[in-house]
Structure formats: structure tokens, C-alpha cells
Amino acid sequence: MEGDRKLNWAEEHMAVLKKIGEDFSANKPLKGLKIGMALHVEAKTGILALTLKYGGAEIRLASCNPLSTDDDVVSALELRGIDVYARKGESRDEYYENLHRVLEFEPDIIIDDGGDLTTLLHTQYTHMDIKGGSEETTTGVMRLKIMEKKGILRFPMFDVNDAKMKHLFDNRYGTGQSTIDGIMSATNLCIAGKTVVVAGYGWCGRGIAMRMRGMGADVIITEIDPVKAIEARMDGFRVMPMIKAIQHADMVISATGMKDVVREEHLKVAKNGCLLINAGHFDNEISKTALQNLAVEIKEVRKFVTEYNLGNRKVYLLGDGRLINLVAGQGHPVEIMDMSFSLQALTAEYISKNYENLENRVYNVPECIDNLVAVLKLQTMGIEIDSLTEEQKKYLEEWKEGT
Ligand code: NAD
Ligand code: ADE
Question: What's the predicted TM-score (pTM) here?
């Protein structure tokens, strides 16, 4: 069965998570706990769910995006005892119904990606007791921090995104590679020789820009943060506002976590044939309302490619404006998700041991977990590094002498 083969392949290449799974199987640190998850339901996520189950937890899983589910994997996971509520192409109503199925299970711990599950726990399931949870992505953490600031966060949440072993690799190299995977699968078009505009020079944007340049694209960056704009320039990219950049663009890729990054004023001057692509969490970075308002005709010209005829020009929206690496690609590379999901598994274990002493706020992943994942990853990569001598350690305490 295809889903089984995808799970086996992922498990084989998630060496750190595999080690954690072996430890969980032996020690059952999550015994008796229910874990509710809303993540992109594909093979790597499946291995995280199975790892938590090896640790003794009961699992319910829904998707965090209506278009990112791999249906083969859903069937295979169900046969392995994971309750999954997700389908690729689910409607908005089905998407929310599935999140409700996860919460009706009354989880002790939640693992969220983007914040929709957490939001339901603060709007509709306001009396449900949650021991703690973790959040996978930048947009979800942004929402959590707003809740914390407003004083309404009602259980402890861990910010996995900002762990070093997450954003430095997942957001940068993961999104860099998998966004290109998604664009190539959706279009079968060439990247070399194209002018690619990347909106946002944060962790995702810089990964995309770096890899696009490696593929032979001429990359332009748009930013709102002056420091990031200078970084982009000094990394060798042209920087300009979207209104100018889009006039040169064969492709625009948005990776900001902000809404309306490409809007009506930009679409009016976009180059004929421009591909519009989102790699950010929500499908609001490229304004679909503006596209609909300006279009004289809209048609699907290829799977995941919608043509908007704007009268004198045509532009193409990929994957309905949803994050392209999971809609048309296979998500991040397996070895990258090994790090992100090892952090998630160890954070769930940490919550199970420490929830009684936690407050209702946003916590960083403990440094010892971040470092453990780094050490294990290095081991599984077969890389050795130096360590400080005793003399060097003493030197770190010195302030009198420079030599
Ligand atoms: P980040 O905060 O590191 O970077 C976002 C950047 O966008 C910032 O530098 C910010 O200044 C810039 N920005 C904001 N508004 C802008 C605008 N109007 N025009 C141009 N630039 C603007 O965040 P990140 O970690 O790079 O994440 C970006 C988005 O991608 C989030 O929604 C996150 O959840 C999502 N994400 C997606 C994937 C994926 O698999 N596709 C993986 C990780 C994160
Ligand atoms: N696969 C599963 N979850 C993912 C995520 N958040 N980003 C990219 N690929 C993924």
C-alpha cells in the first residue's frame, strides 16, 4: 500500500525521531495521555503521531490546512491505530468539523500548526482543561503571543518554531527546497533565467531566495523591515517595493505571514504570465479578492494552476494561494522534519512531566531539548566536532589578559 511505503521511507530517514521512538516504546512517558494534533497530515507527521503512540499516548489528528493532506498516508495511519480526521481538498466547513473531532476527544496535550486548534479552545471549548501544548509555525506563535499579551491564554504553550533546531533548518532550508519542489510539480516550468520576487526576507524568504538563486533565477526581495532589507542587499539581492518588483516578476513568492502582500494595486501592474505563489501559513498573502475583482475570466489550466485573465494580461495563482510546498509538493524534506518533530515529541514528554509547574504563558523549548536534538542529529549524520580543552574553558572566564 502506497501510504505504508511513504511512512516506512519517512521513518527510515528520520533517524533522531526513530531513536526517540525506541526510548518512548521502552519507557512509555506519555502513558494515559490523550494528544490532539492539527498538523499537515503527510508521512513525516504520521511518524510523529506514531512516535507519540509508542510513548503510550492516544492520538487524534486533523489537518491544519484543507489542501495539505496526503490521503494515502491517512489510510495507512488509520490501519496503524491513529484516528485521523482529514482529507485533501476538504471544504472550510469540513476543515473545522475535523478540528472539532479532535477537541471532542478532550485532549490533555495539543500540538498545533498555525493556531486554529488553539483558537477554538479559546472561543468555543473554553472550559476544556488542557495541560499544555506546542505550536509549530511562525504565524501560530504570533497569534499565541497576542493572546499572551492580552492575558487570555488559558494554558501553557511551547514555541517550537523559535527553537534553534527548528527555524534555522525547517523555515530556511526546508521551505527553500520544498517551495521549489511545489512550484516545479505544479508548473513543470524552468526556474533558470526567470526573475523571481520573494516577499519577506525572514527565515523562509531567505531560504527560498538562496535556493532560487542556486537554480539560476534572478532574485529580487521585498521587505518592510529596514534591517532585513539591508541583509538581503548585502547577500547580493536587489531590494525594492512590491509595486516596482512585480513589474519585473516572472514569479512572486510570498513568505511573510502578513495579509495582502500582493493586492489590487500590484496586480494592475504585474507582468503578463506572472506566477503568484504563497509559502506563508495562510492563503491571505496574495489577495484572492483582488484577483477575482480584476479578472474577466478565471479557469483552471492545470492541476493547482488557476489562470486569471485580467483583460490585457494573464496571471496564474498556484495552489489556490495556499502554501505551495504542501499543496503541490511533498512538504519539507524528511531529514529536516526529523529535527522539527523530534523537538515536538520531546516537548510533549516535557509537558507530561512538568505541566503542574507551568503557567499560562508562551514558553521557549527548554535549551536542553534543543541541544539534545542537535547532538543526536549530528551523530546520525556521522559528523564529529571539537570540544573545548580545560585551558580553553578557563580562558572563557578570563577578563584580565588578552593572550
Ligand atoms: P519571519 O518572521 O522570519 O519572516 C517574515 C518576514 O516577512 C519578516 O522579515 C517581515 O519583516 C517580512 N514582512 C512582513 N510583512 C511584509 C510585507 N508586507 N512585505 C514584505 N515583507 C514583509 O517568518 P518566517 O519564519 O519566515 O515565516 C513566514 C511565514 O511562513 C509564516 O506564515 C510561517 O508560519 C510560514 N511558514 C511556512 C512554512 C512552509 O512550509 N511553507 C514553513 C515555516 C513557516
Ligand atoms: N510537513 C509536515 N508539517 C510540515 C510543515 N509545518 N512544514 C513543511 N512540511 C511539513
Answer: 0.97
